Amino acid sequence: MNDDFVICVRDVKSGAFIPEPGSTKFLVVPPDKLPSPTQKTKQGDWVEAVIEEATVVPATAAAPATGDLLVFIHGYNNGQDAIMERHRLLRADLERIGFKGAVASYDWPSAESALNYLEDRSDAKQTALRLVDDCIALFASIQRPDCRINVHLLAHSTGAYVIREAFDDADDRPAVAQRNWMVSQIALIGGDISSGSMSEGNATTESLMRHCVRLTNYSNPYDSVLKLSNVKRLGAAPRVGRVGLPDDAPQKCVDVDCGPYFHALKEGRAKFVGTFCHSWHIGDPVFAQDLLDTMRGDLDRNVIPTRAMEAGKLTLTKPS
Q1: pTM of the model
Q2: Domain ranges (residues) in the chain
Q3: Is 180 exposed, middle or buried (0-12, 13-18, 19+ CB in 10 A)?
């Protein structure tokens, strides 16, 4: 087993990470271990190791090296044990079906209690910009003529809020906005942001749309955790991970309705970490295949084999 790559922005107390914002640390985590401050490495060494693992096609005289890096951004109420279990399950799912790139996790400070939701969301916003500075813009700045790495983002739950705020804040800072940075594919699972914010021209998501090639939202009307978050917001707008994208979402966005597929799933035969209705994606082979085809970008959104058109909606489905 290979080591795991983690960007951690948790603070340190008594030699251990705590669920409070801190400085950015680049970790190389040994197999079966949890993140620790002792695993911190130099940024340059970490980046080189990630590029080496992410490279899929070596450079030739006629073409540069190419590869893929998938960055996983977790949600609220997540301890590092759950984060690493998801990270390793996601990586194994993808490698089993042919993914040759690298997987890294962006570990922002969240507690292990649902009662900490609002504080976690505040910490998410506080650390969001680090995702651009210390991950996306970092890899954009080191792209070389002989090596092109596609960066993809997979955001779970409040992780969708992290990337939305990160992209928006980045465009507000001239030093970052002037850089030519892009991500390839963004995928949201159990996305805990309002569906309405994903409308064409919405100020909160304009930057998100500007800096990605495609955004895929996996929605599930049976996600009761997102109903809980609505209660915490005193009846705020429906979440995109529960009701899907609005009808006026930008053309580069696609909604995959997972409701029928999820409804047919049985909790006992699926691997998952967390609450089943909200966290079933990582550990599910059909979702893994859909995500891999999305990252590859070889197929149009309408002909990915794990999708079918039902009642005018793209739905996740097990291929026949």
Answers
A1: 0.92
A2: 4-316
A3: exposed
